[in-house]
């Protein structure tokens, strides 16, 4: 998924390490128009000024249930990424993915599409014609210094949906409650869908070196005693050996549970790029613009960082204008 805000701001994810005095920090998302025929709205929980990272998780968009007949669904033309992994997870609908390493795959409910951008990749995402309701989450993972220029790749993974006492879990990244994903990650992480039955409580043993976050998709959830409403994210700092999730309602609730060791690095996020310096981001932008210009004119680009998304018909997304002043880390 692309960050389609026309006035893309610079966000520097500061090194975690300050443990809040409260057990759970509640983050409320802001609404952002994603694009499409009539601008499908998404709820963006990460990054925020008060918290940019949960482990290496650096971006979270939550969308739907979206009536495609009203919004036009998702139509995201080819756009670039560097220095990150995209994690696509659906609750309803279907999205067609194409990228510049030759991948052509569908994103379907309960199935993970994981794209590693590394040194650079381009991709498109379009909801399919038979999709009437679109509902899911798009997340980004920042790659650590030693892996951020790795070769781009794509993985599709179908985790086991396993019943537990009081609910059900699907672990798509890392390990939880005896379930383990096989996809390749570049820092210790966790990603899982958790469903909790009416009135039930789930307790998970977790790594004490991990930060954790829970994004509520349906219902109201109590995370370690703190109430989270739909679309809110609850952050738990390092140090906990278990997480307690309680459903106080009379219907099943659903959330995504994220976690990971603090990245321990400062990263620069601008538009769809993750880098380390202003000059690096400016170089990524210039190379992408060169490739967009060559594509629009039917010529071959002199820059080949991002490549061509075969099978997509239409214009690519140009990068927004960089700020006039140099991009600087915050914090």
TrEMBL record:
Molecular-function GO terms, alphabetical: metal ion binding
Cofactor note: Binds 1 Fe cation per subunit.
Cofactor: Fe cation
Domain Pirin C-terminal: 193-290
Keywords in alphabetical order: Iron, Metal-binding
Residue intervals of the Pirin N-terminal domain: 42-141
Keyword Thylakoid included in the entry's annotation: no
Binding positions for Fe cation per the UniProt entry: 79, 81, 123, 125
Iron as UniProt keyword: yes
Domain of life: Bacteria
Family, as annotated: Belongs to the pirin family.
This protein's name: Pirin family protein
Organism: Antrihabitans stalagmiti
């Amino acid at each position: 998924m692309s960050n389609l805000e026309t006035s893309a701001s610079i966000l520097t994810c500061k090194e975690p390490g300050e443990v809040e005095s409260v057990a759970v920090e509640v983050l409320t998302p802001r609404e952002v128009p994603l694009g499409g025929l009539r601008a499908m709205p998404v709820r963006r929980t990460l990054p925020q000024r008060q918290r940019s990272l949960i482990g290496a998780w650096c971006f979270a968009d939550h969308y739907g249930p979206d009536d495609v007949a009203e919004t036009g669904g998702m139509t995201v033309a080819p756009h670039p990424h560097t220095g990150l992994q995209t994690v696509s997870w659906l609750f309803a609908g279907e999205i067609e993915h194409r990228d510049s390493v030759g991948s052509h795959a569908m994103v379907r409910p309960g199935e993970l599409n994981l794209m590693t951008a590394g040194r650079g990749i381009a991709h498109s995402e379009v909801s399919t014609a038979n999709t009437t309701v679109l509902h899911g989450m798009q997340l980004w993972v920042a790659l650590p210094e030693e892996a951020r220029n790795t070769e781009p790749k794509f993985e599709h993974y179908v985790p086991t949906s396993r019943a537990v006492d009081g609910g059900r879990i699907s672990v798509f990244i890392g390990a939880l409650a005896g379930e383990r994903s096989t996809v390749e990650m570049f820092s210790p992480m966790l990603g899982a869908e958790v469903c909790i039955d009416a009135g039930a409580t789930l307790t998970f043993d977790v790594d004490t070196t991990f930060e954790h976050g829970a994004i509520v998709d349906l219902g109201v959830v109590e995370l370690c005693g703190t109430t989270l409403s739909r679309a809110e994210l609850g952050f738990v700092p390092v140090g906990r050996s278990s997480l307690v999730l309680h459903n106080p309602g009379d219907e099943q609730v659903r959330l995504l549970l994220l976690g990971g060791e603090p990245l321990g690095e400062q990263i620069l996020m601008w538009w769809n790029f993750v880098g380390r310096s202003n000059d690096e981001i400016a170089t990524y932008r210039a190379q992408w613009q060169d490739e967009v210009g060559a594509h629009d004119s039917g010529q071959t680009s002199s820059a080949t960082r991002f490549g061509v998304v075969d099978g997509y018909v239409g214009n690519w997304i140009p990068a927004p204008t960089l700020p006039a002043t140099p991009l600087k880390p915050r914090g």
